[in-house]
Fold:
Amino acid sequence: MLGSDILDVAIGVVFVFFIVSILCSAIREGIEAWMKSRATHLEQGIRELLHDRDAVGLARQFFEHPMIYGLYAGAYQKSPTSTWWPTALTRGRNLPSYIPSRNFALALMDMAARGPVVDQATSSPISGAITFDDLRANIATIGNPPVQRALLSAIDTAQGDLQRAQKNIEEWYDSAMDRVSGWYKRSTQWILFAIGLSAAVVFNVNTLTVVDYLYSEKTARQALVARAQVVAADPASPSTTYNLARHELESNNLPIGWGNRAAKVAERTQGRWDVLVMTTLGWLLTAIAASLGAPFWFDLLNKMMVIRSTVKPHEKSPEEASEDRQIGSAPPPAAAAGSAAAPPAPPGAAVATTAAAAPSPPPPPAAPVPPDQVDGCDVGVVHITSDEDLPAAEGGVA
Amino acid sequence: MPIYSLTWLPDVLKGAGLKVGPVDGWQTRGSGDVGEIRGVICHHTAGPRQGNMPSLRTLIDGRPDLPGPLAQLGLGRDGTYYVVAAGRCNHAGRGSWEGITSGNTHFIGIEAENTGLADDFPWPAIQLDAYQRGVAAIFKHLTLTVDCCAGHREYALPPGRKDDPSLDMVAFRATVSSLLSGGAPAPVLIPATEPPKPDGTPGRPTLRRNDTNDFVKLVQQKLGVEQLGVFGPKTEAAVREFQRTHGMVPDGIVGPKTWAALDALSHS
Structure:
């Protein structure tokens, strides 16, 4: 039981998370295309790296250096400085969102050797080629002690090799960029959480109702797992577009959305307090899931599919049937003969044969049960009605 | 014996082009009368696999631990509605739907014949179609919306107490909704006669229970039933069995398709 049912519910939920994550990532990319916050992150990272937080000295010279200037349109305009959460939502405008480490190293070395690009003299060909010693001797022109220190150590470990010095500077830049990308990822996670929460509310994707629904609706669960299997097998799935993901979300008969009655928490709980808590908690869970990103859920989905294929669902074995169903699936011998050709079984005999199969054998209802608290569904057939005993039907013929 | 409220059921269902078989005494059957009808709860019987509606007698009389009737309507595998009771039935039990917790009083119960197991899935197309059309006809009569249609497992509390019906209720309601809005095709009826032969002779009439003519004798002869000339229950059962073995809808009605199959039988 645990094998397939719980696992299938989990797969269904992970699948829903995956789709929601794709949706949120797509929205995040849309915002990114407009905000260009990746560029702001890069710019702030470089300002940090060059020890020029306010972008008045070296950082400004760096961005105005021809090696870098060509990477973006227009003039350099520094992004607003703030001390906490610097760039998650600040617009990047025209700045580059990527600077190759080679450009960085060359620009910095050029500035170290020749000083800022301000006049004809330093930029004329007669100023001579950069040599290793030039570089080391002129480093004070940078006018920024911490960076000078960093450059000096890069130059000194190169032991006279200009190429090697450039390589060292590139590595220094790369390690700083790792930090910037970690920084960017973290801020993205927050934004994804915010997007996920809005999406959860707008589409009413409540993790708890989805779990509950999948747990109680066997057919829906199986259909969703089958769909998840198809999607998990396709390596292109994580790069699905917004529209496809949205279609996926809508086409799977999931208990989401506002008009959908299966998604109403009120149907599944009692009491107003429950509704409030269940709704908020469900949405928060969805939002947290979305902040983990689509690749994470795709990996998890694939891992669970592997587990599922090793835990074989025992569909064919009889003990899978619930108690209710066993009553129905064990018809009395009379039923086998109850076809058209056989004479109708005497009612008394039928009662005798099925008494054993009935759930709780004889006791007639002693205690009065409120009339609305009883049901006879999954009937538990006592008398087999053969085709000959059916009443005549009318209608259905033109 | 008082006559209960739901006496409109057979006419409404017949009006939707469905086959309807009232069970003797249905007008006065029920554990008291129903209240205001607020919807329909769909069930399956989990009865035996054989026959068209083996659970019918149990629906009428109940079982040792529960007095009947157990549902107002029984839906046979051939899509025939058997009208069991016009009063209240013990079908819903404890549960809640649309805020209504007294299900037996406010919901009509439809028990469709299905084992609920893999051996009876998917459901016969004619039965599922009749199920949806029947619910839509009832809703149209009562001017209810599609949200008033619940599966028993959706209604029952605590959750998971029931697992019937083994249908996708979301898709079910979607179809009922399109039937209510008139966006679905009209029901397919069985023609009253065969199409005329190429030489102009009229086709044979469609035969069903209680018909009496020489064509009935012909059918009885082909099926090896006593040739009384009256289309009785035994003949109907024999026709159903014949239809079942020939992969047709086992409704016991000898229409054009069954005539053709009977002809093929005598040629071989």
